[in-house]
């Protein structure tokens, strides 16, 4: 009797290319024939190594499978050895160390606000970070700052900035004597965005804040306001194209993240409960003619599609950091893309000042949403939706709030410990990057990781009173 092992290798290869990579790895252990076939097949090896690096195959044409595999391996070796194919140092002076100096990162772009020479005016610099291995060219342009309240944007008074290259969108939250106003512009020209009905979104007036966070995704823009003493927190979710406020949440929010065209997440605590919660909202269900207002836990429970409780209790503060959603537009003839494997880092500071970190992949949250829908439940305890046996871990070094983009390829699943991910590869990567660029006498340092780059942000006080400050961005690309 013929068995599957008797089939020609060409047929077996086609079959193995159509099953999950985890199954292919197990098939290697069946017999020597299967092991040899898998090890010697360039197409199968390419598919396995794409999964290992968190990548997906690019469009047909251009490089052959053999060339793509060689490029993939060269890229991995360069990352591991911290041998970038592109290096650049951006240096500028900040006239007053108290001035805000926003930096913005997406998976493929980096932008920063810098002051012009001998001027109090600030400009926005945008860089499309090049990648030799993926064939992405370098592009850079500058949007000059204006005076605000007019055609120009006042980057000098910007509390925070966000960009969405897919939508050619620039959002600048200007501080106008205490009133925070989100201003909309074209990312490429700095002019009014042609798809926005209004050039500004409704402002937040009359309340003092010390932290403002903004992010954008497709037609949505979200702003998080934190009060000086943490007693006032608000989230405003807008449709920036229409200028409408879709959702308004006060007091409880600690962080938010866009996931897809359908789902939006808010991490928050509950006044009447010590648990931290991740609430999931279906953007498709939001009314178009009236904003949703939420000021207490029962309001959130009514609106949320699912509420997933976290194994974190008695938190004084919490934030959610997400790798960017998968871009809709790709560069032509790129051999491979970074896959749609979002991860969410949830950090909580407890009453004893201990910081706990929980890394949750989007696939786990999706399972929680499906379970709520199938079982007709509004909320789930961690034991009902989280992986069994996993728990938060103390804050790893370097701190993950410095690594907001493109993290997932550098986090490895850890099935032996009681947490979801092993941070060893990321820690090694960041250590090598810091070691390669560190200057003596720096006052501070942060990191950013994208799809093809790592950026070390260093600053140094230039005077004893700390008024003048020098800033360096060390860009390493692969």
TrEMBL record:
Q: Which domain of life is it from?
A: Eukaryota
List the PROSITE patterns hit by this protein, alphabetically.
FBOX
A Pfam family per the record: F-box-like
SUPFAM superfamilies for this protein: F-box domain (SSF81383)
* Residues in coiled coil: none
> Which segments constitute the F-box domain?
1-49
Q: What is this protein called?
A: F-box domain-containing protein
């Amino acid at each position: 009797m013929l068995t599957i092992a008797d089939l020609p290798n060409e047929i077996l290869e086609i079959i193995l290319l159509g099953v999950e990579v985890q199954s292919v790895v197990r098939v290697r252990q069946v017999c020597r024939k299967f092991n040899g076939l898998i090890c010697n097949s360039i197409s199968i090896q390419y598919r396995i190594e794409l999964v290992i690096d968190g990548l997906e195959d690019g469009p047909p044409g251009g490089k052959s499978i053999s060339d793509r595999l060689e490029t993939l391996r060269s890229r991995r070796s360069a990352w591991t050895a911290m041998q970038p194919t592109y290096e650049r140092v951006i240096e500028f002076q900040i006239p007053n160390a108290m001035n805000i100096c926003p930096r913005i990162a997406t998976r493929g772009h980096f932008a920063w606000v810098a002051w012009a020479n001998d001027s109090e005016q600030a400009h926005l610099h945008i860089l499309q970070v090049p990648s030799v291995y993926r064939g992405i060219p370098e592009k850079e342009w500058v949007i000059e700052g204006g005076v605000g309240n007019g055609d120009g944007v006042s980057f000098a008074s910007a509390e925070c900035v966000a960009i969405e290259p897919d939508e050619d969108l620039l959002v600048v939250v200007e501080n106008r004597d205490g009133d925070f106003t989100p201003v909309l512009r074209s990312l490429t020209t700095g002019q009014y965005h042609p798809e926005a009905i209004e050039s500004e979104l409704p402002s937040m007036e009359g309340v003092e804040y010390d932290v403002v966070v903004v992010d954008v995704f497709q037609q949505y823009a979200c702003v998080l306001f934190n009060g000086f003493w943490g007693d006032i927190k608000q989230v405003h979710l807008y449709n920036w194209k229409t200028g409408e406020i879709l959702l308004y949440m006060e007091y409880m929010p600690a962080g938010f993240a866009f996931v897809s065209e359908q789902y939006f997440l808010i991490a928050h605590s509950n006044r009447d409960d010590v648990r931290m919660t991740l609430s999931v909202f279906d953007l498709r269900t939001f009314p178009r003619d009236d904003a949703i207002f939420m000021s207490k836990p029962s309001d959130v429970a009514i609106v949320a599609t699912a509420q997933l409780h976290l194994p974190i209790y008695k938190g004084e503060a919490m934030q959610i950091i997400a790798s960017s959603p998968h871009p809709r537009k790709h560069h032509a003839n790129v051999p491979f893309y970074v896959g749609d494997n979002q991860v969410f880092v949830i950090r909580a500071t407890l009453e004893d000042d201990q910081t706990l970190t929980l890394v949750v992949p989007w696939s786990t949250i999706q399972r929680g949403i499906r379970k709520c829908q199938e079982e007709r439940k509004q909320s789930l305890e961690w034991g009902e939706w989280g992986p069994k046996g996993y728990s938060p871990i103390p804050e790893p070094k370097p701190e993950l709030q410095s690594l907001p983009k493109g993290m997932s390829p550098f986090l490895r699943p850890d099935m032996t410990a009681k947490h979801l991910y092993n941070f060893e590869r990321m820690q090694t990567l960041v250590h090598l990057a810091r070691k390669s660029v560190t200057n003596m006498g720096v006052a501070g340092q942060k990191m950013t990781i994208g799809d093809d780059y790592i950026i070390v942000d260093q600053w140094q006080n230039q005077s004893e009173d700390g008024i003048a400050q020098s800033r360096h961005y060390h860009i390493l690309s692969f």
